[in-house]
């Protein structure tokens, strides 16, 4: 489906129409067994999750996963048995519902269009419905790209697509193997990285909180928030004021609060056009 805000985003998802792989699983399909997983990795279909039994070694799968930038998650055989009762041979993968894009391409395209970068980094958001809700809010607030880690993130499956109300069809998603390297790259690209954390001493609504320029906001996991290493790397930290007895917000709600404060500030920073 064409991105209504960025029609050119489809060039990142370009497929070679001349290539006709023999094995073509459907999005959100579970593929298991060594040869089936190898053929899936060789096809143009992108992989969302790749699970391999601890202690199992298969050079073909490992090399193809490395070439395709797919992180292999080593798990006990019991987890694989819970995923499928069939003969999985120690390896199971889930086919992605979205086509991941390169962050460098997104940044270049945003700057080429004369827009101000507005990105969202999700550090280990594992609940599928939280992720879907966040994606919906991100698309509505004009976020151009959601960045997720290659490991420890929710699967972008049919539940995520449904919860996002189709927003994941309209927003770029980048999967990066190392968010620390991603933050460095964003900063080198002139983008300020702001972490939303209750550990901050700066209130989101303070006058000194500036969310108007090239911006990437980090939101942390449901259990322990943003990783300490990512917190240290962020340019700024902000917290959402909590006035009640409960000590935290749901991460999807918190993301909405921060994104819409950024929208408010950015709308005020745009000069008003008047007719002569």
UniProtKB/TrEMBL annotation:
UniProt xrefs under CDD domains: SpoU-like_RlmB (cd18103)
Name of protein: 23S rRNA (Guanosine(2251)-2'-O)-methyltransferase RlmB
UniProt keywords, alphabetically: Methyltransferase, Transferase
Region (Disordered): 1-22
Pfam families: SpoU_methylase, SpoU_sub_bind
NCBIfam families: rRNA_methyl_3
Higher taxonomy: Bacteria, Pseudomonadati, Bacteroidota, Cytophagia, Cytophagales
Residue ranges constituting the RNA 2-O ribose methyltransferase substrate binding domain according to the UniProt record: 30-101
Domain of life: Bacteria
Listed Basic residues bias regions: 1-14
InterPro entries: Alpha/beta_knot_MTases, Ribosomal_eL30-like_sf, rRNA_MeTrfase_TrmH, SpoU_MeTrfase, SpoU_subst-bd, tRNA_m1G_MTases_N
Keyword check for Methyltransferase: yes
